[in-house]
User: Which sequence fits this backbone?
């Protein structure tokens, strides 16, 4: 059936629009290349359709540059998934219009039995679906151009084409035609602030495939004729008033607006047709919401079409606009008065709703028509309405919307309960009528002894007959039942004229009660679903989806003034759920699998809007919380355990406590409105008020913490003490914040301390995650992060820009102040000191870091410095292999032979070392940089690990000891398993039952600082040739510049001041150890042997100098430091030291 095919097409169209809107929010900003840095870095790998002219040249340019290859791989690695999904959307849009064209072609060719285009357009549902299918294609094209810029679409297609290849793409030419830039950009506006349209837009864009695919213009003309002349959706019965006709036909009007662009000759030349369209659909409005709140102004978009412009002339006359505006303002005043009456407590009762159903529906129509016109037209720019006080009128419109939503909510609730209780109410009224009539029959039977009315057999028989008639009334057929009850009421009125009845007030009272009960039965029998259907139609708000954003701030201000206004806002959000009705109708009818995803998307959008509006409550809450923090931190003094009686009044601090109580009460009032809300189902998303408040507080908490941390990072310390002072101030702020949250927890019904710790940890983890991006090929962008709240609040900077985030700045400062150019590391003091002996980075700084960042922050610093070491080692390894000439490697081989075996003392050893230092000066310079950076970073990691270990030992001593035991046990088990490998019983390593446990325990061990920071392998590259010999040359070169200060026990550079190339003994030893531990342990042996050989030569070949010359002492002290940090057992060195 053609109708079923068209239904499936319409369902696909609605799903594609939802997918387009979903994906448009995730299109990478990088593809727009708006910033100069992005253009410079990625301009040659993110190519538009110009690539298709010379693809070989473009590919050659990229492949000939390692940097461009890396950039290209980075783009695909980071954004390949979203690129594939967007390209799949483009393909689906092309397939959609191709399938529609095939359906039309099949109808014209007679492939559908007894169905043609004309017969489908005569079918009630067929004409709807055929018009909708083409309309949705037009909407797709417009939204595609609005949501994703043409240049971005081209770059996405070319990126997909380059990485997937032409073989994986069907109809690449057609897809390129579909997404090719049109010249339209929503960022380019005219003097009215509206998007500027290029010539021939959008009709040329719309017709790219219409003619090519063979969709005849006569088919489109027939669709337009149906839309302009018929009430296709039968909505006029829901809007019986003539002044509401344009609202009733608004659905067809928006479809006409789109379809006319497929037949632009009508807009240009068909004056009579356009006049008919405007008179019927746009006589009292000129702003059209063509899809889900996407709004256009007809005078602006039709300004270039002669017939359309002429037809709109009357509507857009200033006098007509003023008249329409004034009439809608009068309607607004009238609607507000009616709503004020209906919303009065106790008015909308069951009886009132039964009696005034028609009037209540009319009130709902009037309110919604007024709200619709004002919401759409007050924002008009091309033809502005003459508003005297825009702000005040905007508030009046918002108030009308809130009251209308509340009124509709209560009316639907009341009418739903009537439908539920309809049968019960009918039976109760019917039973009462039967009982009353039976009593009257008995009354005229004359059986009552005390009755003064004489017996009347005819009236008895007549009332008995009425009893029988009422008992046979059934509510199933309301028309028949209503007609019979009207006859009964008329008969009861006539019987009152009888003299036997007229003289009896008691009987007349009975008859009046029976008539009232019959009227109630008539009203009950007329309670049908069509009332709720009509109410659902007239309360539609899908047209205002984008327009409502302009009233968001007004909503927030209203909530700020009156927190209990959220109860009306809840009804407004429920009213906004009507946006789901339009896209889901066809999807539901077609039983499409897209139903869940589409409903989930739109429901999530409504829920997100609700959260944005109500976020004002957490924002105000934290503004009051800042006052509490100020009071607790600076005003209120802690009361001692014992207070003298005479000083009790002073310690009471009544003024400060009154301010504290007032702030606490304000917080309680702010949250009470949300907490009194009921759980709300917005589409398929259920919103719990407590969860809503908790999520809002989390979001605002993260924002406050982010601003606090970023403000602290803006300090530029000129010395380490400045950094320490900044951290002290930050600790005070964080402690006050934490204390205040804990104080108000009971008043807002949340665990403030838990929220603080969770979100602060998430924020620090997000900072760490983003800083790690500087070292990763596969980066975790902010929109991919699992820390959503932190990602939303942090103003993201380029990944490698350490100074742009609090955490990156802290890492840079720590590396700066622990550099050998500024401080020495003291083994005895376990800290960095300056030349005067003053502590620079030590226990105080680590304690502040722990109090500021917590365990999560210390682990983040540890891992970040680990990444720094890894990056430097990779850089050095690449330099060692690529930048050192082959001839120098040959010289290294000759030096190695000359110094072998190391147990001997070659002649002229010192000359060999001096010559090698000159020969390998460039290589040794890179070694100096690597050793210095790696040594300082590893010492910082060691300090962080030690701080974690001390903290865990003090705070959780039992867990600390348990982790130590578990770690040792698992390591022992693993060692035994490895020892068994290769034996007859265990030819290969079997799976251990403790593998899962090992991973879990390892995480806790690292968090407790029980894993050493020094014995780690960072890179797994091949061994660098003759690395121990090069490091020996480097060590001797550096030791010649150093002396052993026995007073403070330091091995430092000679001189009172620190030069730029200063060397520190401990970082030097640790840095060399770091380079050696990346290979086999034999490298340590080779290096130690070279150094011992050099030491023996100093002792044996002394000329004038004694054995304890400073040079010998320096080498001995360095070797001692190196062996201590490497945990290397060297008996020969011990002999020297003794």
Assistant:
């Amino acid at each position: 059936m053609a109708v079923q095919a068209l239904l499936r097409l319409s369902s696909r169209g609605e799903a594609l629009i939802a997918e387009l809107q979903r994906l448009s929010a995730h299109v990478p900003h990088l593809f727009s290349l708006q910033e100069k840095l992005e253009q410079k870095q990625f301009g040659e790998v993110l190519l538009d359709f110009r690539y298709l002219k010379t693809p070989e040249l473009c590919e050659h340019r990229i492949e000939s540059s390692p940097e461009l290859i890396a950039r290209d791989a980075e783009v695909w690695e980071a954004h390949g998934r979203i690129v594939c999904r967007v390209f799949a959307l483009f393909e689906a849009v092309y397939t959609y219009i191709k399938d529609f064209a095939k359906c039309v072609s099949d109808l014209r060719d007679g492939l559908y039995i007894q169905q043609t285009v004309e017969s489908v357009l005569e079918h009630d549902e067929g004409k709807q679906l055929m018009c909708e299918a083409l309309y949705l294609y037009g909407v797709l094209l417009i939204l595609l151009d609005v949501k994703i810029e043409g240049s971005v679409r081209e770059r996405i297609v070319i990126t997909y084409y380059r990485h997937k290849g032409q073989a994986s793409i069907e109809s690449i030419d057609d897809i390129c035609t579909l997404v090719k830039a049109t010249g339209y950009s929503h960022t380019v506006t005219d003097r009215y602030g509206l998007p500027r349209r290029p010539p021939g837009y959008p009709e040329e864009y719309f017709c790219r495939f219409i003619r090519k695919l063979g969709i005849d213009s006569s088919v489109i003309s027939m669709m337009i004729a149906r839309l302009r002349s018929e009430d296709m959706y039968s909505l006029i019965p829901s809007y019986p008033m003539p002044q509401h006709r344009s609202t009733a036909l608004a659905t067809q009007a928006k479809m006409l607006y789109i379809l006319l662009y497929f037949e632009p000759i009508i807009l240009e030349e068909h004056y009579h047709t356009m006049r008919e369209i405007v008179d019927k659909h746009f006589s009292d409005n000129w702003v059209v919401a063509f899809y889900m709140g996407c709004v256009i102004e007809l005078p602006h978009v039709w300004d270039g079409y002669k017939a359309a412009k002429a037809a709109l002339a009357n509507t857009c006359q200033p006098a007509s606009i003023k008249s329409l505006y004034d009439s809608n303002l009068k309607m607004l005043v009238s609607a507000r008065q009616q709503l004020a009456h209906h919303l009065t407590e106790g008015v909308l009762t069951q009886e009132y709703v039964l009696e005034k159903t028609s009037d209540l529906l009319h009130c709902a129509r009037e309110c919604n028509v007024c709200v619709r016109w004002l919401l759409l037209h007050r924002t008009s720019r091309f033809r502005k309405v003459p508003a005297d006080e825009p702000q005040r009128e905007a508030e009046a419109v918002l108030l009308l919307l809130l009251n209308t939503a509340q009124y509709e909510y209560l009316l639907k609730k009341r009418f739903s309960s009537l439908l539920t209780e309809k049968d019960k109410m009918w039976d109760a009224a019917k039973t009462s009528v039967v009982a009353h009539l039976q009593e009257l029959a008995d009354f005229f039977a004359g059986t009552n002894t005390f009755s003064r009315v004489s017996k009347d057999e005819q009236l008895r028989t007549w009332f008995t007959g009425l009893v029988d008639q009422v008992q046979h009334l059934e509510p199933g057929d309301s028309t028949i039942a209503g007609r019979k009850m009207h006859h009964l009421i008329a008969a009861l009125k006539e019987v009152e004229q009888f003299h036997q009845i007229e003289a009896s007030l008691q009987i007349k009272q009975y008859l009046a009660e029976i008539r009232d009960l019959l009227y109630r039965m008539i009203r009950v029998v007329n309670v049908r679903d069509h009332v709720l259907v009509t109410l659902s139609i007239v309360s539609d708000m899908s047209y205002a989806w984008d327009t409502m954003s302009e009233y968001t701030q007004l909503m927030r201000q209203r909530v700020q003034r009156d927190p209990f206004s959220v109860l009306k806002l809840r009804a407004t959000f429920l009213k906004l759920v009507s946006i789901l009705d339009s896209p889901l109708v066809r999807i539901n009818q077609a039983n499409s699998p897209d139903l869940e995803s589409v409903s989930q998307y739109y429901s999530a959008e409504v829920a997100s809007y609700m959260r944005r509006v109500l976020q004002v409550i957490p924002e105000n809450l934290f503004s009051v919380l800042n006052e509490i923090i100020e009071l607790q931190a600076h005003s209120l003094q802690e009361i001692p355990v014992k207070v003298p009686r005479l000083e009790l009044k002073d310690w009471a601090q009544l003024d400060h406590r009154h301010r504290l109580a007032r702030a606490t009460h304000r917080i309680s009032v702010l949250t009470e409105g949300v907490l009194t809300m009921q759980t709300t189902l917005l589409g398929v998303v259920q919103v719990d008020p407590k969860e809503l408040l908790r999520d809002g507080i989390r979001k605002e908490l993260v924002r406050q913490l982010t601003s606090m941390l970023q403000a602290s990072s803006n300090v530029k310390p000129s010395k380490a003490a400045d950094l320490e002072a900044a951290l002290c101030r930050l600790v005070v702020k964080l402690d006050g914040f934490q204390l205040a949250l804990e104080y108000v927890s009971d008043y807002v019904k949340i665990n403030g301390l838990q929220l603080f710790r969770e979100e602060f940890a998430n924020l620090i983890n997000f900072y760490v995650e983003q800083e790690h991006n500087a070292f990763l090929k596969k980066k975790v962008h902010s929109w991919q992060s699992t820390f959503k709240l932190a990602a939303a609040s942090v103003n993201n900077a380029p990944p490698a820009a350490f100074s742009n985030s609090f955490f990156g700045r802290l890492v840079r400062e720590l590396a700066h102040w622990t550099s050998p150019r500024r401080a020495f590391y003291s083994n005895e003091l376990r800290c960095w000191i300056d030349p005067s002996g003053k502590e620079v980075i030590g226990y105080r700084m680590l304690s502040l870091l722990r109090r500021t960042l917590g365990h999560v922050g210390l682990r983040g610093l540890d891992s970040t410095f680990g990444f720094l070491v890894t990056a430097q080692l990779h850089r050095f390894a690449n330099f060692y292999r690529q930048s050192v000439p082959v001839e120098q490697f040959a010289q290294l081989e000759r030096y190695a032979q000359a110094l072998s075996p190391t147990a001997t003392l070659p002649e002229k050893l010192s000359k060999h070392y001096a010559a090698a230092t000159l020969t390998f000066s460039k290589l040794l310079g890179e070694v100096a940089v690597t050793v210095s950076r790696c040594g300082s970073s590893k010492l910082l990691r060691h300090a962080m690990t030690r701080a974690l270990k001390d903290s865990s030992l003090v705070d959780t001593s039992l867990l600390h000891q348990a982790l130590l035991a578990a770690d040792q046990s698992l390591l022992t088990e693993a060692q035994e398993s490895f020892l068994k490998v290769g034996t007859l019983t265990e030819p290969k390593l079997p799976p251990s039952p403790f593998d899962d446990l090992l991973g879990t325990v390892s995480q806790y061990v690292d968090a407790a600082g029980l894993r050493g920071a020094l014995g780690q392998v960072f890179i797994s590259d091949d061994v660098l040739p003759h690395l121990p010999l090069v490091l020996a040359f480097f060590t001797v070169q550096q030791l010649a510049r150093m002396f052993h200060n026995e007073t403070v026990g330091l091995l430092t550079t000679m001189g009172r001041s620190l030069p730029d190339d200063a060397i520190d003994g401990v970082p030097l030893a640790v840095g060399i150890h770091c380079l050696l531990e990346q290979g086999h342990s034999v490298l340590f042996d080779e290096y130690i042997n070279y150094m011992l050989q050099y030491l023996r030569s100093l002792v044996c070949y002394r000329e004038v100098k004694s054995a304890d010359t400073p040079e010998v002492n320096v080498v001995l002290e360095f070797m001692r430091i190196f062996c201590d940090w490497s945990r290397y057992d060297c008996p020969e060195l011990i002999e020297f030291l003794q």
Q: What stands out?
A: Strands lie at 287-291, 294-297, 680-682, 685-687, 824-826, 831-833, 839-841, 1042-1045, 1050-1053. The chain is about 65% helix and 5% strand. Residues 2-215 form one domain.
